[in-house]
Amino acid sequence: xxxxxxxSLMPKVEEYLxxxxxxxxxxxxxxxxxxxxxxxxLLKNLSHPPAFTTVRVNTHxxxxxxxxxxxxxxxxxxxxxxxxxxxxxxxLPDILxxxxxxxxxxxxxxxxxxxxxxxxxxxxxxGAHVYTPGIISASKYMKAGDFVSVYSDIEGKCKRGAKxxxxxxxxxxxxxxxxxxxEIFNSNGPLKGMGIKMTEPIYLSPSFDKMLSSYLFLQNLxxxxxxxxxxxxxxxxxxxxxxxPGGKTTHLATLMCDEGEVIALDKIADKVxxxxxxxxxxxLNCIKTFCYDGIKALATGKRExxxxxxxxxxxSFDRILLDAPCSGMGQRPNxxxxxxxxxxxxxxxxxxxxxxxxxxxxxxxxxxxxxxCTITLSENEExxxxxxxxxxxxxxxxxxxxxxxxxxxxxxxxxEQLKRLQRFDPSEIILQGMDFNSLQEFKYEDLISLAxxxxxxxxxxxxxxx
Length: 466
Prior knowledge:
Elements: E1 8-9, H1 11-21, H2 24-30, H3 32-46, E2 52-57, H4 64-79, E3 87-88, E4 95-99, E5 113-117, H5 118-124, E6 130-131, E7 135-138, E8 147-153, E9 170-177, H6 181-185, E10 194-201, E11 216-218, H7 221-230, E12 237-240, H8 247-255, E13 261-266, H9 269-281, E14 287-291, E15 317-323, E16 336-337, H10 341-344, H11 347-361, E17 362-372, H12 381-390, E18 394-397, H13 415-419, E19 422-424, H14 436-441, H15 444-453, E20 458-465
Parallel strand pairs: 1-16, 5-8, 12-13, 12-15, 13-14, 15-17
Antiparallel strand pairs: 2-4, 2-11, 3-4, 5-7, 6-10, 8-9, 9-10, 17-20, 18-20, 19-20
Helix pairs in contact: 2-3, 7-8
């Protein structure tokens, strides 16, 4: 059920992705027709949001059932007379799932229009309101309190302050303007605060703005799986090498019952502040943050007495998470991906530099989990092949829980090795759309199965150091 155009890619990036999803090994296994259908499905599905909003309960502060009841009450306030269930995931016990209703086809498009940037439009499709910095254009006579239609400028061609835009735009819903056009575009100071309160989004998801912020953390389902796969234990020393904004960091600390030490690194100071803010908000004390480049985290000489932070001595950590910087091509929704082929392919060398450091920092018998939110072979399965060839001390491990699919063929891994990987693959999704009537007809097991499949693109590999 496609309501948006398929994702727009730079020509060379599309050639690169097509060659990957129609590699010889895959075409031999599936046949050329099926491989083409799979690739086209990928491009279409990336434009659409996942079928569920996923939130993680901070079990450090409260039980899942207690927070689930609070969340149900809050959602009921937003949805008034509509009854939407809050589901607990059977294999990820601290994860709650809220079905996304849509696409809604009965919405009337209005003459009064607001154009927002692509990133803002993507956020709206996942339940956000429009904040003023995201507004690029508004109709000439728009006043505060006007009912307006909101469109996403997916190609980034609308000029700021334009009174009309005739370029490519995608309707994302209707809302009420909090400000007039004049207030938005003639303001002397920096713009902040809500610009459009979305009352009729094309995809209906709850807004989590300031909602139960100490109890809940918005997190894509595969991102939550990663922490369980790493399986940190209370009292262990754990390294999160590329930690911002801290979703996985705080999850690791929670699974450890806030006992032990989670070291979180990021090389950008503002991102490190965000990790600290999230740790404080969730009242987790075992997290220590450092503004530091993970590539330089291995000490080449002696450390100073009492030194807590990086660089670290070899074999310092029981568990290491390398949620690596990547091309991000698994993010959904995304209707236009503007990166060049040079940018897309620049991540593999960086990931390998980080991986080399991670292996040296890991204790014998320790666990290393490598993950990305992208779909390319070069950043995923090819990295596994490289790691196993480069580091004889590493063994590829099976994962628990395993709710994604197997790895993708085309990198030369054996069928047994592919089974030990988790790939959440948007090309496997059959877009169904969901309204309130069809929601009542779904069984719990069917909804969970849908949530496991219809999520962002993601990849997980688990290694043990012997």
